[in-house]
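CORE FACILITY INTAKE
Project code: CF-77B
Contact: R.S. (postdoc)
Sample description: multi-component assembly, four entities in total
Requested service: structural model of the whole complex
Turnaround: standard
Below are the sequence entries exactly as provided by the requester. Do not edit them.
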Amino acid sequence: MAARPLTSPAPDGSGPARRKAEPRAAGSPRAQAVYNALRRAIIEQALKPGMKLPEDSIGEQLGVSRTLVREAFGRLAVEGLVELKPNRGANVAYPTLEEARDVFEVRRGLERLVAENLAGRLTAAQSAELEAHVRLEEKAHEQDGPESIRLSGEFHIKLAEMTGNALLLRYVQEASSRCSLILAIYGRPHSSECAVSEHRQLIEALRAGDAARAAALMDHHLQSVVTRALLAPRGERDIRDVLAPYALSEGLTPS
Amino acid sequence: MAARPLTSPAPDGSGPARRKAEPRAAGSPRAQAVYNALRRAIIEQALKPGMKLPEDSIGEQLGVSRTLVREAFGRLAVEGLVELKPNRGANVAYPTLEEARDVFEVRRGLERLVAENLAGRLTAAQSAELEAHVRLEEKAHEQDGPESIRLSGEFHIKLAEMTGNALLLRYVQEASSRCSLILAIYGRPHSSECAVSEHRQLIEALRAGDAARAAALMDHHLQSVVTRALLAPRGERDIRDVLAPYALSEGLTPS
DNA sequence: TCTTCAATAATCGCATACAATACTGTTCTT
DNA sequence: AAGAACAGTATTGTATGCGATTATTGAAGA
């Protein structure tokens, strides 16, 4: 991310749905590039949850001024990927367990909507695309790399795209990226979140046009993601929480 | 909005739910104030859909520099209240009919989630608060002022607050404000969107703990808002569209 | 009279400069 | 030696300036 200040191969736009990719909240290309860079860095955990984000050094790395960095921070903050505290600057967001539950609950509601919307409306091409994707997932699942996690996330994004509902897509993307953060904090080491078989079943229900079943499957699927991956609250956010046990074992008393 | 540059009586925070009102995407108080001012101006239609938003004059009016105005634009753009076109500046958003449908669809999904979440979990105090609110709505309904519209919007916000799910609340708020825009463009003159009786029924179902019925009611309620208010696409955005009929009646031929 | 083009004016994109605030290490007091 | 007050440093908040891009207007040519 150092020697390549500002390039991004048009990650948006080319959706297979009906819309013309109108860049609503785009800003200038450079601002967008900064935003993309930071967003990816956070999602890929190059920037770890809670990490400080100094405007100065980041701008320097990316070859832009603080102005653009701040702009990106603003957008990322709205999306819940960074926390912005007045006069204290920006940190990569560190969702609490409570927020994590909130995100998952909303995501369930959103994706249920996706399922209902798509049931019985999949074109042959879309159907094929989804199956191809699932096959990719299966391949990646065997090697159990980080690929697996990325792919199962993209499956859900693909579904949201196919609804042709731009807002729904945006919300699902947002929920999805926040889930990345959450799993980075609270998730088990390498549990590959989504069971591929559940994706298969879902496609089947969608193709059969069984909206109720598709919604129920999606619901159950995401529910099981929570219980499967989100059980061990390992990390602690606040310095105080981290140090509390050390203090205790050394006989120090927190104020 | 001219002689009062930057004051706002803390519109957020004091939710009756469980959270501590942590200001995640706050920014400095002044930036927040600019954001609030613009947001309110748009929702109350002091700034009409499609209207140009020059950084310079707005900053002047609000007593801040373009920097803060731009920051506010960024946030409002993410929320879909302004459109930000590179090198062309900002306009109040002018959702297309297609986008309007998208927003309503997502909103239905979100509020169904609210209903399910709340069913059987309302405290006595919350229940009373809702009923008091409905009574207010009834009072306002008789005079049929703009109060009526605001109140029926707030009913839905109140419900979302009561879930205690901060993200859900944010999304519902966002959807709700965009609905204001949409109704300003495509809505009938003074149809007071929500039928108060439907709000009553909904409260009843929530109190009874009938999640399915509550969800169905909410679904139907919002669906009927669409058909009730969103039938006549009156307004046209582009100057050309506005003038087309005039041209025609004068025998002029648009290119 | 309509089109094309150039000059001007207005506006935006972005960097930078300055002011305000928070942090850290030190010294002074008790 | 512990705590408080202070100063220096680092970082953020905001305004402003300059170059770049776009809209507008008026004039020349068809």
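Facility notes:
- Strands of chain A lie at 52-53, 82-85, 89-92.
- The first helix of chain A runs from residue 29 to 43.
Invoice: internal transfer
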